[in-house]
Amino acid sequence: MLNYHVRKNRRTRYTLRIVGFTTILVCMSQIVAFIMGYGRGYKIGTFIAFALCMYGFYLFFNSFRSGAYDIDYEFNHDYFIIHTKYGDRKHTYDEIGDLNQIIPENEALYSIIQITIGKKQYLLPFSYKKELADQIYTFLNERITSQTLGLDSEE
């Protein structure tokens, strides 16, 4: 059984919320001023303000998604579990559609494992942990291969 914990920065979530909320307030003031007829309101400026307001909503609500919080991955023999803030997701290895390991030119710095299940993508970043990334990728690749071929490998 392998476990891996992906830490997310709390300040990033708060920054996205503040920037999104501020953008919403500023753009809504432009839209309200145009609707009420104050000052010289231009239609194109109001349209741009509306587009920026939608982007502010996107930033604000995107900071509450489950991927913005810490994620724990637990890889067992027959299945793996993804522990997020909003609950656990249990998947078998035959559900994995694509598995990739992204290795840059300088292997010592970082490595990324990308797991695709249906429409969902999970990225496991490994900073200065090349051996652990290789171990998890090898384990996942063996599990997927054995599930695909219908083999029941014993450890």
Short description:
By secondary structure, the protein is α+β, with helices and mostly antiparallel strands.
Keywords:
alpha+beta, 155 residues, single chain, 3-stranded antiparallel β-sheet
Give the SSE map.
Blueprint: E1 2-6, H1 10-36, H2 43-62, E2 71-75, E3 79-84, E4 87-92, E5 98-102, E6 110-117, E7 120-127, H3 130-149
Antiparallel strand pairs: 1-2, 2-3, 3-4, 5-6, 6-7
Structural write-up:
- This protein is an alpha+beta fold.
- Helices cover 43% and strands 28% of the residues.
- The protein has three helices and seven strands, in the order E-H-H-E-E-E-E-E-E-H.
- The strands form two sheets. It has a four-stranded antiparallel sheet with strand order 1-2-3-4, with no helix packed on it.
- Helix 1 packs antiparallel against helix 2.
- The model has no long low-confidence stretch (mean pLDDT 85).
Unreliably modeled segments: none
Number of strands: 7
How many separate helices?
3
Note the beta-strand portion.
25-35%
Order of adjacent strands in the largest pleated sheet: 1-2-3-4
Q: What Rg do the Cα atoms give?
A: 22 Å
Shape: elongated
Helical proportion? Answer: 40-55%
